[in-house]
Design a protein that fits this description.
2 helices; 135 residues; Nuclear Transport Factor 2, Chain: A; globular; alpha+beta
């Protein structure tokens, strides 16, 4: 049996699946899947409206649960993996571009392989564009 956290093609495939779960969570806001994407101890950092923001995983989960999902609003999807850097059998960095409603983000996602599954332990986000058209 192959260890899904090995730093080889298997690890990259497993990371791609983990990123797909992240993209799906960002579009559907189905928080029942949250624990398959984010580690409970994760923190999110980014600058919004000129101020540094810090969210715990729980605060982010709560925000997703109370905000209408892009999917429910038929918002366009835009998702790209820009970089995958596997540091070891249990650590990786993934850079993505993702649209959430009318905002385009560039996220740096720190992943750790925990109990055989890649989970986000830290997210750093940057707003690349706002007020994007709905088409």
């Amino acid at each position: 049996m192959t260890d899904p956290c090995q730093p080889d093609h298997t690890a990259v495939d497993a990371l791609r699946q983990a990123v797909k779960r992240y993209f799906d969570l960002m579009y559907d806001s189905d928080v029942s899947c949250f624990d398959r994407v984010f580690r409970s101890t994760a923190q999110l950092h980014g600058v919004r409206h000129g101020e540094m923001r810090l969210l715990t995983a729980q605060a982010y989960r709560d925000a997703l649960a109370r905000t209408p999902s892009p999917g429910s609003q038929n918002a366009p999807r835009h998702e790209e993996i820009l970089l995958i850097d596997v540091a070891s059998r249990n650590q990786a960095l993934v850079k993505v571009r993702v649209r959430i409603n009318a905002i385009l983000y560039v996220d740096y996602l720190s992943y750790h392989c925990v109990d055989g599954d890649w989970l986000i332990t830290s997210k750093s986000f940057h707003v690349e564009g706002e007020n994007l058209p709905s088409t």
